[in-house]
Each structure stands twice: as C-alpha cells, then as structure tokens.
Specification:
Order of helices and strands: HHHH
Number of domains: 1
Structural class: mainly alpha
Strand content: under 5%
Number of helices: 4
Helix content: over 70%
C-alpha cells in the first residue's frame, strides 16, 4: 500500500509522460482490456494451444514408441540430438515474400 501511495504522490509531483500516476496507469489498463487486446490475445493463444496439442499428440506417442523399440531409437536418436542443439530460429520457415 505504501508503494502505491508513494507512486501516486511521485507521479503527481514529478510525473508527466515518463512517470504517470498509479490511478492513470489503472485507467489505461482498464481501457486496454476493452480494446483490441483481448482479441489479439485470443488469436495468439489459439496458435499456442494448437501447437501444444499437436506437439503433445505426436510427441508423447512417438517418445513412448522410441523408448520401447530399440531399433527405432538407434535410427532416430541421431536426428533428435541434432534437432535439440539446433536453434529454434533456424527451424522457423520464411514467409513466401522473403524467399
């Protein structure tokens, strides 16, 4: 509570654009919740949840299969190790306009 009071006081005394008051910050946050932010968050989370479902749906069964079948492990292990040390940025495909 003391931090909020100090923030509000300092914002009123020294404030401006670089240090808004606590109440102005809360009002701006409230306005952002009713603007385009929720829709953008939903689109981002859809992509994340879809990717997670795909990774879990393919990765868990494949991992269990590799763990059970020794011959499959020997064939795939080299490629999995290569993928683990490859930076993720190198695996992101370029859009068609950048090619």
């Amino acid at each position: 509570m003391a931090i909020v009071v100090a923030w509000e006081w300092f914002g009123r005394v020294q404030g401006g654009l670089l240090f808004p008051t606590f109440s102005a910050t809360l009002l701006a946050f409230g306005r952002s919740l009713t603007g385009p932010l929720p829709a953008a968050l939903w689109v981002s989370n859809q992509a994340m949840l879809g990717g997670f479902a795909l990774a879990a749906g393919l990765g868990v069964p494949l991992g269990l299969l590799i763990g059970r079948v020794r011959r499959l492990e020997r064939g795939i292990d080299v490629y999995l190790n290569i993928l683990m040390v490859t930076p993720m940025a190198a695996l992101i495909p370029l859009p068609p306009t950048c090619r």
